[in-house]
Design a protein that fits this description.
The chain has seven helices and eleven strands. The protein has about 270 residues and is α/β, with parallel strands linked by helices. Helix 1 crosses helix 2 and helix 1 runs parallel beside helix 7. It starts with a strand and ends with a helix.
């Protein structure tokens, strides 16, 4: 079951300080990493702000990036001043060793393109960058596989489909929710207290489906019904479910709902 999620740029609205907003973004990132989310879509919502959207997108991307590439890809800016106290993600490419003597042919690593004295190199988190002969521009992040380790380390670029294990989530921004939903090719599951109560039959359908699933969340002030109005009935392949029928929506924070719903889906998938 390949799951992506859609969350509004107003997701941080209920936090008053940058520290609390950063922590909430970190909890969202952690849930997505634990449950192997493919893509996080941030959609613009009337209750959101440009500053919150930038902070949320930045922290989600920063935490997913391997530690050894962060210095090259992220500048020292105020929005990342709390990054050092956020929980790291347990993603396979975060635990790779830096010593090149531990490299093996076939290993997969993340790298970033660097320019030095008119030549291109690739920083893959070892002590010395490797020569890069590709066409990508400086600061471009790539996934590569080790071709040789002796006498020198060489790599080849590989596609996402060639990585067999979970390799992290992507972060993409969309101008509005309706556009995202109408363009989605697969199942859509929207969460709302106004939806039908989630049943085992619903869960069985989604965990057995071979289609990619988009799990959609509303904001702190407005749910998906308020955002979409009557247009919610025009979304194909979509269901609106209430996963917490015995609990008022106002008492379920988005990061808690995300973790809870993904846990439910994961449990159903394992049985």
């Amino acid at each position: 079951m390949k799951i992506s999620i859609a969350i509004p740029d107003s997701a941080l609205k209920d936090e008053s300080t940058q520290l609390d907003k950063s922590r909430k973004a970190s909890l969202i990132a952690r849930a997505c990493a634990i449950f192997r989310i493919d893509t996080i879509y941030l959609y613009e919502e009337s209750g959101g702000s440009e500053a919150d959207r930038f902070l949320l997108s930045l922290i989600l991307r920063y935490l997913e990036t391997p530690q050894y590439l962060r210095k090259a890809l992220f500048p020292k800016i105020d929005e990342l001043k709390y990054a050092g106290i956020l929980h790291p993600l347990q993603i396979p490419h975060h635990s790779l060793l830096a010593n090149p003597k531990y490299l093996k042919v076939g290993d997969i690593r993340e790298g970033v393109v660097l320019h030095h004295k008119g030549k291109k190199f690739l920083d893959i988190g070892t002590f010395d960058p490797v020569v890069y002969y590709g066409k990508e521009h400086e600061k471009k992040r790539l996934t590569v596989q080790i071709k040789t380790v002796v006498p020198t380390v060489t790599v080849k670029e590989i596609s996402e489909s060639e990585v067999k294990q979970y390799w992290g989530y992507k972060v993409k921004e969309r101008s509005n929710l309706l556009k995202l939903l109408t363009e989605w090719k697969g199942d859509i599951l929207m969460t709302s207290r106004k939806g039908k109560n989630a049943t085992q039959k619903h869960l069985d359908y989604y965990v057995q489906s071979e289609k990619p699933m988009l799990l959609v969340f509303g904001g702190p002030d407005r749910g998906v019904y308020e955002m979409l109005g009557q247009r919610i009935n025009d979304i194909s392949n979509a269901k609106v479910l209430n996963f917490f029928p015995n609990q008022a929506t106002e008492t379920v924070r988005m990061e808690e709902a995300l973790m809870g719903i993904l846990s439910i889906l994961n449990f159903a998938n394992s049985h």
